[in-house]
TrEMBL record:
<dbReference type="InterPro" id="IPR027473">
    <property type="entry name" value="L-asparaginase_C"/>
</dbReference>
<feature type="domain" description="L-asparaginase N-terminal">
    <location>
        <begin position="54"/>
        <end position="214"/>
    </location>
</feature>
<protein>
    <recommendedName>
        <fullName>asparaginase</fullName>
        <ecNumber>3.5.1.1</ecNumber>
    </recommendedName>
</protein>
<dbReference type="InterPro" id="IPR006034">
    <property type="entry name" value="Asparaginase/glutaminase-like"/>
</dbReference>
<feature type="active site" description="O-isoaspartyl threonine intermediate">
    <location>
        <position position="60"/>
    </location>
</feature>
<dbReference type="GO" id="GO:0009066">
    <property type="term" value="P:aspartate family amino acid metabolic process"/>
</dbReference>
<dbReference type="Pfam" id="PF00710">
    <property type="entry name" value="Asparaginase"/>
</dbReference>
<feature type="signal peptide">
    <location>
        <begin position="1"/>
        <end position="19"/>
    </location>
</feature>
<dbReference type="InterPro" id="IPR027474">
    <property type="entry name" value="L-asparaginase_N"/>
</dbReference>
<dbReference type="InterPro" id="IPR036152">
    <property type="entry name" value="Asp/glu_Ase-like_sf"/>
</dbReference>
<dbReference type="InterPro" id="IPR037152">
    <property type="entry name" value="L-asparaginase_N_sf"/>
</dbReference>
<keyword id="KW-0732">Signal</keyword>
<dbReference type="GO" id="GO:0004067">
    <property type="term" value="F:asparaginase activity"/>
</dbReference>
Amino acid sequence: MRWCNWSLFGLFTIAATSTVPCSVHSTLPHDGRCLPCDQLGHPANPKSFYHIGHIATGGTLQAKGNSSTDTTHYQVAASGFDFVIDAIRGPLSDGPRVVSRQSLELDSINFRAEDFLRIYHEISDMLRQPGALGVVVSAGSSTLAQLAKFLEHTLDPNKRVILTAAFKPYTAYGADGPGNLLASIRAITTPGWSGVGILINDRILRPHGTVKSNGYFKPGPGTYFADIRNFKPRFKHHQWEIPKTINISSLSPEHELPRVEVITRSLDFDVRIVEDAIARNVEGLIFVGYDDGYWPDKSRYRIEELAQEYPHVIMVMVSQDPTITVEYERVAGLMRGGRWNPDQLQPILQIAICSLPSREEIQEFILEPFRPADLRRSRVDW
């Protein structure tokens, strides 16, 4: 097993800090230069000491179509974040400053691990600014739940971070992006919660097990904790688990993370797919099995041999359905994947291979990604 950061052995940390070389009074633009916040910000209330960070990464929320009725053929990130902020500046006039930054200009289907690391560092940097209440990240919806889960297990769970997206481009009739951004900013200013949330479809969801399906975000078990009414959050009686976190502050966006691939079961599965992946020096394989971890016998026996022959390759079995827990070792040598879905586990496994010292600790993190039940937090309706 290759370790990316020897100093992190066995360390689960509550506070994730960035080593980006900027002072606490500056933010980090995409080109790496450090500029004062007020040179980057779009202040709704310039006199307010408190502020909310906004990191724009592209996606449909900033997209531009050919006309106001075009919701399918549009250019991602063609509308600057200035236009989106300007659309909601009025309702924010008496609130905290909004400090915006265009970090990336990507369709989220093109996100790479380095982009997740960059977003993590920029959020961490913004959260360290004096007076920071939290951070809103606007991104594409395709990998929103995957990014949110990555951030949930790397950022300080005592901070507030909201990820939001849009299903219609900014130029279309009924564009939902500005309203989602407004509601996200208001959620940051609402007390009584912390951690990472996904604001979409007029709801706020926790990341674990949440998936996008046919233009709709289906919440994972127990993750639906707020409604949006009149662009304001209305929190439900909610008890949430505190995530364990992995300190990745020393991993820069340029750091090459271990290669982790997802392999899905199928009729007449060809085990050479697994053999080829190992030959390409992957360091992690996530198997998506049937039900709670079953795999066809014809290829299962060979996979068990490969797991024994290549113990340095971390192999994990998960279910496609986040409501199903993989708690038994149906395939010898493969780790049990618990309640993870494959897309959310993939980037987490990359940093776990880097940062955790043993297979046993990786397995423990996968099976128990949250702290004990007696440390859960709760809140009630306002």
